[in-house]
Amino acid sequence: MTISDKVENIFPTENDIPAEVRVRALEQKDYLLNGKITIWRGPVQQVFSPVSLKGKKGLTRKYLGSYPLMTEKDALEALESAVKAYDEGKGIWPTSTVEKRIACMEDFVCRMREKRSEVVRLLMWEIGKSLEDSEKEFDRTVEYILDTLNAMKELDRVSSRLSVTQGVIAQIKRAPLGVVLCMGPYNYPLNETFTTLIPAILMGNTVVFKPPKYGVLLHRPLLEAFRDAFPKGVVNTLYGQGRRIIGPIMKTGKINMLAFIGSSKVADILKQQHPAPHRLRCVLGLDAKNAGIILSDADIDLAVKESLAGALSYNGQRCTALKILFVHRSIQNEFLEKLVTRIDRIKAGMPWEPEVKITPLPEDEKISYLADVISDAKKYGAKVINEGGGMTNGNFVHPAVLYPVNNKMRLWREEQFGPVIPVAPFDDIKEPLKYVVDSDFGQQVSIFGSDETKIGPMLDTLVNQVCRVNINSQCQRGPDAFPFTGRKDSAEGTLSVSDALRIFSIRTLVATKDSDANKRLIRNIIRNRTSKFLSTDFIL
Fold it and tell me: Which residue from 248, 306, 319, 540 could staple onto 72, CB 3.0 to 4.6 Å apart?
């Protein structure tokens, strides 16, 4: 069967769907507000899967359900619920002991695990992620929460002692910041959302949480878990069009911290809407245009394998994806031949199929966008060098390798966020290095080679341009214990298991002069437990 035939017949009929992965439409008519599952009686947004089904009338998108289209009034109610729960730092949650917060989160994890199959199935159907990767995302999220709990215990242990310095007795701990607005991305709607939501909650903040545009329904099975595990008002959900519901709550100035993963353009708009941007703390995961640099002495088979995984995992819809490859001209022919050969072997199909790698895309507008950037690259001299590259059917796009790309093309500077691989030849290492230096983005880069005299000096340049240099491997986020951030327009703040706890809190201390009377006072406060902050309890 040719690539053209495969693309043309990529979608199944309703009867072709295995019984074990079928999904019923979920009509979500509720949301979490002030500790209650509140019924929604207003307009709703219908949800369709990127998967289409063949029928007598052609292709029809699979209907998955609907969710509330909330208004400015509803958004302000969600915000006020979080503000009331925080209560200027006097609320039950911000004044809870670390041990109490940990217990609540452990309860949440237990409840979350019970919903694994529901969440995984919706994750697969809503964004077209393979079943295997959807299961990995859920399991990795649970693991992330458990690792965060351990990091929280260790952080509190370090803070459990008093210090005496220059005649001053003090205890230094971390305190919450206030009300946090959490907005995650559609490509990892569970995992990346929770990498900000979970530490924000654990540190004593209250939260307004808006799921991404794609990947909304998968959060519905967890509403009761949030409701039952945490005090009322700690977690409040918000659904609808971001322009309609996010602007009004930002403009109140009552959001103390913005946790957003998306485009830098949207992040700038959100920050500018806050009346006191200098008071707004932010942790932002933004755009990236990570480059892969394949040197003349690279292990070509390894470079091809890693480059392909880096460029096409989840259809290239990852901020950490390799979005442009620079290949030394002396090995370009062999590299490209092997790259194209391996692409032909990649399994494309429906998310539930075993070992599938290329699936339909959730964004409708992405199909025409990718066609536009491919056309633009051809206009300036590039060619699609793999069979069927760029062919579409519904929301499915067959991967395209474009060669040679140059600085006149949109693919040179724009983050394609899809299954398109631009490849540029180079003769002098200064060429790809200049690309990285001149780029508006500074997340990661990958180098493939074996000569330490070449790679060593490159590292010294690149570590001051990006925040992670990968040697002979694709760009990636994990392990979660490692810092995840970026320079330039790629990020603000650092996320990792331990960094996230710090970024959603601030160091606060209680201090007094070293005198007998003050020692007695501090001793009695600790002994009689009249303060939850001032404490020498040690969590095991």
Answer: 248
Closest CA to 126 of 82, 189, 174: 189
Angle between helix 264-273 and 242-251 (nearest 10): 40
Residue ranges of the chain assigned to CATH 3.40.309.10: 290-485
Tell me how far apart the alpha carbons of residues 433 and 413 are, in angstroms, rounded to a whole number.
14
Handedness of CA 296, 299, 300, 306 (dihedral sign): negative
If phi over 0 gives left and psi between -120 and 50 gives alpha, with beta otherwise, what is residue 277? alpha
DSSP state of 346: S
Distance (Å, whole) CA 510 – CA 168: 10
413 phi, psi to nearest 5 deg: -120, -25
**Residue 415 near residue 372 (C-beta atoms within 8 A):** no
pLDDT for 57 equals 87
The pair of three-digit structure tokens given for residue 208, joined into one six-digit string: 């307004």
User: DSSP assignment, residue 424?
Assistant: E
Which residue ranges of the chain lie beneath pLDDT 70? none
400 pairs with which residues across the strands? 420
CATH 3.40.605.10 segments of the chain? 70-285
- Cα torsion 66, 67, 71, 74: sign: positive
69, 42 in Cβ contact below 8 A?
Answer: yes
User: What is 290-485's CATH number?
Assistant: 3.40.309.10
d(Cα 27, Cα 44) in Å, to the nearest integer? Answer: 9
CB atoms closer than 10 angstroms to residue 361:
26
Give the H or E element holding residue 497. helix 497-503
Residue written as tokens 């200064």?
Answer: 430
262-317 per-position pLDDT tens digit:
999 999 999 999 999 999 999 999 999 999 999 999 999 999 999 999 999 999 99
End-to-end CA gap in the chain? 60
Omega of the bond leading into 432 within 30 degrees of 0 (cis): no
What's the rounded Cα separation, in Å, for the pair 522 and 539?
Answer: 20
Which homologous superfamily is 70-285 in? Aldehyde Dehydrogenase; Chain A, domain 1 (3.40.605.10)
Distance CA 303, CA 298 (A): 7
pLDDT at 540: 79
Bridge partner residues of 180 (DSSP): 207, 257
pLDDT tens digits along 144-187: 999 999 999 999 999 999 999 999 999 999 999 999 999 999 99
Task: Give the span between the Cα atoms of 348 and 199, in whole angstroms.
Answer: 36
DSSP 3-state of 256: coil
- Judge contact between 51 and 198, C-beta under 8 A: no
Question: For 230-363, where are the alpha helices, taking DSSP H only?
Answer: 242-251, 264-273, 300-312, 332-345
- Report the alpha-carbon angle 472-452-322, nearest 5: 25
In the block, which residue shows the tokens 């452990």? 106
Q: Which amino acid is at 208?
A: V
